[in-house]
Amino acid sequence: MIQLKNIILLLGLFACTEKLFAQDPVFSQFYSSPMSVNPALAGNGDANWRIVANHRSQWIGQGLDPLTTSSISFDGKLFKQADNESNYIGGGLMFLQDKGLAGAYKTNSIHFILSSHVSLDADDASGLSAGLGGTYSNTMIDYSQLTFAQQLSSSGFNRALPTLEPNLSNVKPYFAMFAGITYTLNSETSSFDIGVAGYRFMKTNRTALNDPTQLDPPRYNFHAGYQTYLNERLVLNTNAIYVLESNMQSYTVGLNFGTFLDYAENPTILNTGLWYRGNEAIIPYLGLSYGNLQAGLTYDIPMSASNSSLNTLKTYEFSLIFRSPKRGTKGIPCPWK
Q1: DSSP codes, 207-266
Q2: What's the predicted TM-score (pTM) here?
Q3: Domain ranges in the chain?
Q4: Band of the pLDDT at 130, cuts 50, 70, 90?
Q5: Does residue 30 sit in helix, strand or coil?
Q6: Which CATH number applies to 4-323?
Q7: φ, ψ for residue 39 (rounded to 5)?
């Protein structure tokens, strides 16, 4: 039985939709979910294609049912220019689900993405990528799993009584567009990229209370990354993201060290990193690349002192990436390419 505090949490989600990332969330491992950061990243990297899966469980503890976010995506290079494979058309699909309150709250969305990369010089030392996508999203609330205060009596919840919540309804499905652009600069030993993406250019109505004024505002992601060899056995990867949505803003910045454990064609690499999400959490990262498979695990360590009860809740995130056996020769080993 869902407890009253979970109902309050559900209502809070809809009262504060500007803080709800059900349509286009940024994971703690945002670098391992490139298509939720910028559609221009579809098909980037040295693999012809990749399959990416992410799972995030947050607010674990104190008897609460965790809010989980799961995604699976496929992206790759759809067409390459015959005389210059650095120029390509990319594309991808991503399915995303938010689920909370033991399944009483659920949001599903599917993203469709097309991208294009153009070299700005003969050696592809610099390049420009652009991406365009659309999202179809629906939110469902199973009221049969919820209990409300008016059902509470001395003997517990009497679910036979009416909830007296006739205005509650499921959120109507909707379609939204998004787009992005990135610039890359490469050398034999390093790589740099920077980009911006925008989501929901038109404000979208999203409410369970039939409130026409409750809208999801546009959201903008600004991101950058840098990779370089420190020596023949060690690679430094750094990246950052800044998110702007209405009157809310946040940023995450961090670095990863990739240690070569062998020198195979697709080497085994141990990844250890640390990220900081502004005034919210420190996020250690542990990952392993083996052949064409890469796995990563993070744990959010809360930093906020304003709510000590929230600091006891736990958040874990797991990522898994499988890349095509055929790989390019110019890529620098990196957990997010």
Answers
A1: -SS--TT-EEPPEEEEEEEEEEEEETTEEEEEEEEEEEETTEEEEEEEEEEEEES--SSS
A2: 0.82
A3: 4-323
A4: very high
A5: helix
A6: 2.40.160.60
A7: -65, -20
- What's the rounded Cα separation, in Å, for the pair 331 and 83? 20
Least confident of 83-87, 95-99, 248-252, 318-322: 83-87
Contacts of the segment 204-209: beta carbons below 8 A, 24+ positions apart:
204/174, 204/176, 205/172, 205/174, 206/17, 206/139, 206/171, 206/174, 207/14, 207/17, 207/171, 208/14, 208/139, 208/141, 208/168, 208/169, 208/170, 208/171, 209/14, 209/167, 209/168, 209/169
Cα 79 → chain centroid: 26
Residue 211, C-beta contacts closer than 8 angstroms, at least 6 positions apart: none
β-pairing verdict for 293-302 and 190-199: unpaired
* DSSP category for residue 61: B
CA distances (Å), origin 233, targets 82, 229, 291, 332, 333: 35, 8, 17, 12, 11
The two three-digit tokens of residue 172, written as one number:
């109507």
**DSSP H/E element including 5:** helix 4-15
Structure tokens at 55: 């799972």
Q: What is the pLDDT of residues 157-172, one digit of tens each?
A: 565 555 555 555 566 7
Contact indicator for 241, 252 with CB cutoff of 8 Å: yes
Q: How far apart are CA 68 and CA 249, in angstroms?
A: 22
Average pLDDT in the chain: 82
State how far Cα 177 lies from the chain centre: 17
Residue 9 · residue 62 · CB < 8 Å:
no
Taking the C-alpha atoms of residue 120 and residue 80, their distance in angstroms, rounded to an integer, is 16
Pick 24 or 294 by higher pLDDT.
Answer: 294
Supply the DSSP string of 67-88, one letter for each residue. Answer: EEEEEEEEEEEEEEETTEEEEE
